[in-house]
Design brief:
Chain lengths: 98, 223
């Protein structure tokens, strides 16, 4: 039996974003819909589902960061180490008063 | 026992026994997804049985568990179709589809009943049965569309047809014939229905297994 993998996205409540829930292996879209309903919706855990054939997903997984531009990252970057280094440099040049 | 209670018990027994039979696929269905889906359908059927037993229990002054588990074999009112043990996928799908088609006809009649409680529970049950029918029809189409599936399904439908007719009262049977023939695009044979009132030999074994835990517990045990 040939099968298709469908990626399933689920909305937990009105207004919430669609989030990836998992995948379904099914012979075709009709089976996938029935299976997704049972697997991701029967306990009232979803208000909506999206089913996307994995084939239809454009995947990008090459992200270069050759110049260490950490400040552009969404999670920010830790300044702890850099601050410590800067303090050490400053301390060596001119000890803090007091 | 009045006619209303008998009707409720017939419906409840059908759903309980079929739910049990369908649950025999849990863990061994053709695919993991099907396992989840078919087990879920089985649980729904048992849930319907409980709701129906509760209505009957109120009139009989007992409870749903007592009706489900404590009656003797000859007190069950299930149709022989649901009692058959056919752990073969084409037969399971044939039975599932024939039952759901017959059940839809029965529920439509009940929804038009002038007993508001019966009409209400039939409507409520039918809102879940819609998805069982979608599941059954999708499988029937799939099996009919393959060289291996079609003869297997046809053979199973031939075997189960007299049993399917027996699920319904006489006046509703022509509608089942009409729907089954419309779907399959051929004439079904004119056979004597295997009607409610007798039981298949497999039912005894099923009841023995189904009531095992209940019988092993001391009277009055709470769960």
């Amino acid at each position: 039996m040939s099968t298709v993998v469908f990626e399933v996205f689920r909305r937990e409540r009105a207004g919430a974003p669609m989030q990836h829930a998992g995948s379904i292996v099914a012979p075709d879209a009709r089976f996938a819909e029935v299976y997704a309903r049972e697997q991701y919706g029967r306990r009232g855990e979803s208000t909506a589902l999206w089913l996307v054939p994995r084939e239809a997903v454009d995947e990008i997984e090459d992200f270069v960061d050759e110049f260490d531009l950490k400040y552009r990252r969404v999670d920010g970057y830790s300044i702890k180490e850099r601050l410590k280094e800067a303090r050490e440099r400053a301390g060596a040049a001119a000890p803090r008063a007091g | 026992m009045n006619e209303r209670v008998q009707l409720l018990l017939a419906l409840a027994d059908d759903e309980l026994i079929l739910g049990w039979r369908n649950s025999e696929w849990t863990g061994i269905a053709p695919s993991l997804e099907e396992d989840v889906a078919f087990s879920s359908i089985a649980q729904n059927e048992i849930g319907h049985a409980r709701a129906l037993y509760e209505l009957a229990a109120r009139e009989l002054g007992t409870d749903a568990d007592a009706l489900a588990f404590d009656r003797s074999l000859d007190e069950y009112r299930s149709a022989p179709l649901v009692e058959l043990r056919r752990l073969e996928w084409a037969r399971t799908i044939a039975r599932h589809w024939l039952y759901e088609t017959a059940d839809a006809i029965r529920l439509e009649a009940l929804r038009a009943s002038d007993d508001p409680e019966l009409a209400g529970i039939a409507a409520k049950i039918d809102r879940e049965e819609v998805y069982h029918r979608i599941h059954a029809e999708m499988w029937v189409d799939r099996l009919l569309g393959s060289d291996e599936g079609r003869p297997r399904l046809d053979e199973a439908l031939g075997e189960l047809w007299p049993y399917a007719l027996g699920v319904l009262d006489e006046e509703l049977r022509p509608e089942l014939v009409r729907r089954v023939e419309a779907k399959l695009g051929r004439t079904m044979s004119d056979v004597e229905p295997v009607a409610r009132g007798t039981h298949e030999a497999e039912l005894a074994e099923l009841l023995h297994e189904m009531t095992m835990v209940r019988r092993s517990a001391p009277a009055g045990a709470r769960w």
